[in-house]
Design brief:
This protein has 380 residues and is an alpha+beta fold. The chain folds into three domains: 89 residues, Elongation Factor Tu (Ef-tu), domain 3; 132 residues, Threonyl-trna Synthetase, Chain A, domain 2 (Threonyl-tRNA Synthetase, Chain A, domain 2, 2-Layer Sandwich), CATH 3.30.980; 101 residues, Diaminopimelate Epimerase, Chain A, domain 1. The protein has eight helices and 21 strands. Strand 9 and strand 10 form a beta hairpin. The relative contact order is 0.07.
């Protein structure tokens, strides 16, 4: 088994160890006799970092605890190491700190919302740029409760409460914030709530009928987000050419709305013109005027064309090179002919919307389809 140095000294970011087993596959993996790398578990991701030997480096991307010990997975650079090789370990301490802040913030916030409002946390996960918890609650969550809890969490952070970690027995590790929270937990935490820094709720939404989800960030992630937003702000300001972003965005949106209206009008004019040209290819049948056409347009444009054509023909059938089709009829078009067309496209693997007066979908085979339909519709 692997000795868990990450529990004995969570702030030990470098160490020495020995490779006792290794495997090659999609990722190179090693089993060590001791490690400072925390393995993923309980909602907290694993540490990342490097394992370095004399002629190689393993860039560790994931760490998992298995029955035989803790395996370190990553990318091998250099020579393949030998068994029992001595190695140097170094974890990404900034990432470790980030995860510790998020995890400790979760304990604090979850304790506050349960004690104050009775919302129990049943799920927790630290993700790449935020952390989420899940709360079983069938009704509408009172959002004011969540933001009151956010404020109280920040107040408790500033109080500098100790975060105690100890073993209740050989298998049960306890994380305690005195007078606030006591929970079994296998994760890595900061030693004092002040080390969390700040706490901010990002989103509150219903996951499904049974659960609500709350997303948040804490500590260094807040600074990262602020830096990212500042860069985005400067970029937007530069692109808009105006230091006053909100009025500039309003003007831009108004201009965009006007352009969309103009574009819709131009598109409508084009569709009207095209439909008038297509009508020149329509032909008379006993059921009225009919148009059959293969046309190189997307399905949405075919639908707009169909709407225009439906005012002038009793039946239309349009299909594109992707075998997508629309067809429609007026109520005076013979129903038996409509059903014969439906039978034919169903024989060709039709899938899509079906209605009394309109079909839109796709066929698997369209060879000689228009020729067949013309013969069918002109047959007395």
């Amino acid at each position: 088994m692997t000795e868990k140095i990450f529990y004995k000294d969570p702030e030990k970011y470098t160490d020495k160890a020995k490779i006792i087993y290794l495997k090659e596959g999609k990722e190179f993996s090693v089993l060590l006799d001791r490690t400072i790398f925390y393995p993923e578990g309980g909602g907290q991701p694993s540490d990342r970092g490097i394992i370095k030997g004399e002629n190689f480096v393993i860039r560790v991307t994931n760490v998992k605890e298995e029955k035989d010990g803790i395996w370190h997975y990553g990318i091998l650079e250099g020579e393949k190491p030998n068994l029992y090789t001595d190695v140097f370990l170094e974890i990404d301490w900034r990432l470790r700190r980030e995860y510790s802040q998020e995890h400790s913030a979760q304990h604090l916030f979850s304790a506050v919302i349960e004690k104050r409002f009775g919302y129990e946390t049943t799920g927790f996960q630290i993700l790449e740029d935020h952390t989420k918890i899940e709360i079983p609650f069938f009704g509408d969550l009172n959002l004011s409760h969540i933001f009151e809890a956010e404020e109280e969490t920040n107040n408790l952070i500033m109080e500098g409460l100790p975060i105690l970690v100890y073993w209740k027995d050989e298998k049960t590790r306890i994380v305690e914030i005195p007078s606030i929270d006591v929970n079994p937990c296998g994760g890595i935490h900061v030693k004092n709530t002040k080390e969390i820094g700040l706490f901010k709720v990002l989103k509150v939404y219903r996951k499904n009928a049974q659960f609500w989800r709350i997303e948040f960030i804490a500590g260094s992630r807040i600074l990262k987000r602020l830096e990212k937003r500042e860069k985005e702000y400067e970029y937007i300001k530069q692109r808009l050419g105006d230091p006053e972003i909100l009025p500039a965005i309003d003007r831009l949106l108004e201009k965009l709305s006007n352009l969309e209206k103009e574009n819709k009008k131009y598109k409508d004019d084009i569709i009207t013109f095209e439909s008038e040209k297509l009508l020149e290819e329509s032909f008379e049948t006993l059921g009225g005027k009919v148009l059959l056409k293969r046309i190189d347009k997307e399905i949405n444009d075919l639908r707009f064309l169909g709407q225009k054509l439906s005012q002038h023909v009793s039946f239309y059938f349009l299909i594109n090179r992707n075998k997508q089709l629309i067809m429609g009829r007026k109520e005076n078009f013979p129903k038996e002919k409509w059903e014969e067309v439906i039978f034919e496209i169903s024989q060709r693997g039709y899938k899509g919307k079906e209605g009394e007066l309109f079909y839109q979908g796709i066929v698997e085979r369209d060879e000689n389809l228009l020729e067949f339909l013309k013969e069918l519709l002109t047959k007395h």
